[in-house]
Design goal:
Elements lengths: L1 H16 L1 H25 L2
């Protein structure tokens, strides 16, 4: 049980450290999807 708790704490710590990278990746993906949506909307007759 202690191993599970320590593993969870370690995983939580890694996610907390890399939160800015996850946020940046999410922002890039949302931007690409928005650009694709706008490009498709402009191309439609």
């Amino acid at each position: 049980m202690q191993l599970v708790i320590k593993s969870y704490q370690g995983l939580s710590f890694l996610v907390w450290i890399n939160a800015d990278r996850i946020f940046t990746l999410g922002t890039v993906i949302v931007g690409l999807l928005a650009g694709a949506f706008l490009g498709q909307a402009i191309m439609l007759p």
